[in-house]
Amino acid sequence: MFPSEVACGGEPKGGDRGSRLTGKQIKKMRQEAGLSQAALGERLNLSQALISHWERGAAKPSRSQQTRIRQVLSAAAAEENAASSPSQDYGDWLRSVRDGKGLSRRALAAASGISSIQIYNIETGRTTNPKETTRKALESALGAKAPGKIVQAVTQSAEIAGVGNLSDFDPHTEDEFPKEPGVYVLYDISDRPIYVGMSNDIRRRLRDHTDKFWYRGPIVEKAAYVRVEDPTLRKQLEETLIKFLKSNAVINQQLVDR
User: Fold this and answer.
1) For the segment 170-227, what is each residue's pLDDT rounded down to a tens digit?
2) CA torsion 247→170→214→248, rounded to 10°?
3) Can you give 61-78 as a three-state secondary structure string?
4) Residue among 141, 134, 132, 62 nearest 101 (CA)
């Protein structure tokens, strides 16, 4: 038995004893989350033997351990449900896992390097296809990987046939700027596309925008891009989008310095 586990059988001081998790409850929650005793022990940084003691009633978790058990099993259950529910989108999965781990958006932002606003946009569905690097940063901070079916559904829904995927990014976080060739679109707070641009290095081009009077919220709130390596195709796609959007591409129509 680990040294830190010895005192775990004592009663908590204060609090509502009626809310204590019983061994049967722990076992049921663990099984519903699809975890073995060893897997739960690993996530709690405790031994499998202690988990077995809890479930058999030979020992009882402390109040802080109960809180952690609920968080871990809730997060594991969310992962398990997501794996069997391909209709769930990435934002739903992210929110359920974050809640299960007891993290606020601010805490996840600090751990992942992704802004709280971007996390909010993803979780609420305003950002439907976050960049792969964004997903990896969030999943690494959560210690959980999104089910392949969800990722596949997200990328397929944003695919432009013959070109690639339209990926969302935060236009106010430079680390999010895609360092790739392609065409990008800027959206206002109402999700209206207001500007279309193209570059062989989108990050460098966006840096030229950031000091412009119009490049701020709520005029620019969201952004998306598609990787296009061929310069002729980039130009054609940009011109097509501007003409298609007409007056909606208000910044383009004002003939700003592009």
Assistant:
1) 999 998 899 999 999 999 988 889 999 999 999 999 999 999 989 998 899 999 999 9
2) 10
3) CCHHHHHHHHHHHHHHHH
4) 141
Mean pLDDT score, 14-39 = 79
Among 1.10.260.40, 3.30.70.580, 3.40.50.970, 3.40.50.2300, name the CATH number for the domain at 88-157.
Answer: 1.10.260.40
Q: Which fold has domain 162-258?
A: GIY-YIG endonuclease (3.40.1440)
Tokens of 128: 């439907």
Q: Which residues contact 214 (CB under 8 A, 6 or more apart)?
A: 220, 251, 256
pLDDT digits (tens, 9 = 90+) for 130-140: 888 899 999 99
Buried-exposed string 141-168: b where 16+ CB fall within 10 A, e elsewhere = bbebebbeebbebbbeebeeeeebbbbb
pLDDT value, residue 101: 85
Is residue 86's pLDDT more than 60? no
What predicted TM-score, i.e. pTM, was given to this entire model? 0.51
In this structure, the strands spanning 193-199 and 164-169 are: unpaired
Burial tier of 25 (Cβ tally within 10 Å: 0-12, 13-18, 19+): middle
Residue 224: its H or E element: strand 222-227
